[in-house]
Amino acid sequence: MGKAASTVSSLLCCPCRCLFCGVLSCLLSVLTCVLFSAGLVALILYLLFRPHIIRATAVSADLSAFTLTPRTWILLYNLSLAVQLHNPNSRIALHYLDVAARAYYEGQPLADARLPDLFQGTGETSSLKPQLAGDAPLVGGVAAAGFRREAAEGATFSLDVKISAHIKLSLWVITVPGPKTQIDCPVRIQRRNATDDDRPPPEFHPTECRVWF
């Protein structure tokens, strides 16, 4: 009796089991086909356009003010920076949107600035020139100690300027959204004396910036 009931149960479940297996097999086949097609399209687009990451270089800088008030540890600063962006792509033009720059000292944020949108054709080199000025408190004694040390060592200060932008890619007549780009420029800049306003800024060594997404 038990054997007969088991046989009947197996026969009743078999259609459901076959249906489930068929649906699962179909879904796996569709998923495999979609992944293969997406990979093939990505490979064709890569071979067709050969995309390259932009290159960024801080080419000039002027630190006309960079002083720390005693006791209150308020940092007064005026920083001008010129960053060259090079688009190495021969078939992709770039639109930089929502461009913003922010300076950091000893890991602490200083001023930020909005920059105009930028269009960069294939193979072109363009400049971004953020002007960052204001005052900010240095939190903690470590940052203030770092300032005093660098001020005593020739008044050459280590700052970090970060630039962010949303990028759109122009592929012939098609424009598609691209990644959000971060440009990180760690620079060492000698402060210009307040009495030397008529003189050119101290020599600045161009510095390669890191580009990441």
From TrEMBL:
Keyword Transmembrane in annotation: yes
Highest rank taxon of the organism: Eukaryota
Biological process terms in GO annotation: defense response to other organism
Keywords, in A-Z order: Membrane, Transmembrane, Transmembrane helix
Annotated TM spans: 28-49
InterPro entries in the record: NDR1-like
Cell compartments where the protein resides: Membrane
Primary localisation category: membrane
Cellular component annotations (GO), alphabetically ordered: plasma membrane; plasmodesma
The protein's name: Late embryogenesis abundant protein LEA-2 subgroup domain-containing protein
Organism: Panicum virgatum (Blackwell switchgrass)
Lineage summary: Eukaryota, Viridiplantae, Streptophyta, Embryophyta, Tracheophyta
